User: What shape does this take?
Amino acid sequence: MISSNKIADQDFENVALDFSELPDFKSVKTQGLHRRYLTVLRCRLLFFFILYLTGAGLVFFFLGLPIQKFLLIFSGPLLVFLILFVEFEIGFHKRQIGVRSHDLYYTRGFFYHKETLVPFKHIQHVEVSQNVILKWFGLYEVIFYTAGASAGDLNIRGLDESTSRKLKSIVMQKNESDESNEQL
Amino acid sequence: MRATNNFKEPRHQSFNGVFLMFFADLIKRVKQNIYILALPFISGTVRDYILFFYMGLILLVLLQFIYTYLLFLKYTFYVSNTAFHLHKGLFRRREIEIPFDRIQNINLQQNFLQQVLSVVGLDIETAGESKAEVQIKALRKKDAEQLKTILLAEKEEKQVYEHSVGEDDGQDAQDFKTVETEDALVFKLCFLDLLKVGLSSNILKGLSLVFAFAAYVYNAFSDLYFQNYDAYISDQISDYTAYISGKFLLILSIGLIFIGIGFIVTAVFTVIKYFNLKVIKLNENYEVEYGLFNRFKKVLKSSKVQTLEFRTNPVRKLFGFQNAFVSQASSEETTEKHKIGLVGLPADYVSLFFKVLFKGKELDTQKFVRLRCQLFRFRVDVNRLFFVSLAFVLFFVWEKFPTYIFIILLLSSLLLVLMSYIRMKKSYLSFSDELVKIGSGIIGTQTTYLEIYKIQSIRVSQSIFQKRRNLSSFTIYTASGSLKIKYLEVDHVHELTNFLMYKIESSDHEWI
Assistant: This one.
């Protein structure tokens, strides 16, 4: 492992561009999601947890499984709930949005940390939407579509109205001004 | 702007659209639930309550109509100064905004139902994903044509400016306009070479087909066959060990036969697929066609090319050629099926196509910097394999297991470990000033190239296990799908991301 590191390091220096002078994406100022969205996540988890408990209870009482077998089968989903709980509680504050002068930065995840960067000029269009649950809480979802399959799209859930409108207008404006620059 | 346009105000579709959508949805529902309609013929209880059954059906249809009508009311669109706006959705409201210059194409169409109701469908294609494309299903013909001209006029207006600045895109717009054609054959694969391609192709594809077929046959005839065989064996050999070795031989020979048939099937399929492969130059573009029964025909456009992938393996190296696969921008994830295959390319054609598809960049002059996949990936694989094998053994520990099963398990584990090691060694990401190059493969070697300015977005991801080792994974999204490299050094990924973002954002090329 060590030897291959060294080779890669040497190679890295060969590039004409000075890497330390490039704008650093980690230094972007970020903003979290709206706190109400944490409530949404908690409620959803609680809802499914209660659903699961009822299901498990019914199975236990009516099928009369031996307790060891029952625990073995039902501990799997329990683990999933635990992981999701930790992910929401600790990971919620890791969901951060940052706007740089040419791109959008979104990071999330505790167990599996992801950072996505989308250049403004590759955003095809922006969608602001709400499902029923988000509507109850007065929150919005903003989707930034890039070209091609949906995998590259950026999906940000749990923003309040002003932030989501602002994000949308920033992107639309940036694309507009980019084009007007090109026209000059 | 035109004086006549009346799309400034939000407006609905043509009222006939309600019926159009209603009938279309109704047909869909009936197709989905055809078995419910068949219930009265099957179940006696349903026949007893036939009145309620029909009333329920009518209620459902009514509800469907009301739903469609509400959807129609909530579906509005208008043209602003900068973009086309669409608002829709009853429970889930969606506001879609498409800037004029992002509009790729506008199609008018009329299917049978639309003809009957005398409306026209208007599709607005963007380069984005298919779901987000706007499909207005019912407009009066006059309106549809007017909307189309307005949108196209706005788009043109935008593009005129751009073209006075960016020269490379000039050719794009001319593609439709140039009429004279200068066809020239660039590459043709003769039958002998095609045969070589067939012989060197990945046997696993054919093998899986053979297995599927064999599983089907086995299911159909298993009872009959195995009873007879067991009876036959026990008649012939009474000794237990001889019985075991007999079975072992049987498995071995079946395996060999499978591989043999798989080999032939793969070769035949490949030959049929790429029969008479031809690449023709049409103006600035290239047309590729191949296939014996199904003639596959696609235009290769350098501006649309997202990735170029070269695949080789020891046999192909011996024959002295490589296979190239091109992914072009599309609204859905490009699968193997969508990739354009240029198979059996000798070395000089490899560099030729590279140059053609990447706007004159030379393969040899690119200076790549290589980031390697770290050894940790191999350790993760080995650990996984260890636990899977352990679980397997523990799970079957009560069964009376013949020794040869364990030998097979051990051998295949060793093989998997070896393969995992090679995979780790072959996996890397390189970048130059203009290109990214990604290597992968186990027995074969795949090298994928893409142009930096065509990258749509970038994702850096890290699991908590990777975090402890200072490793992370890197995903590049293009308009034809994504490419992921796992287990790179965190610092390198960090700098690479900065570099790529800088390159993408400072590039003055349009990505398409």
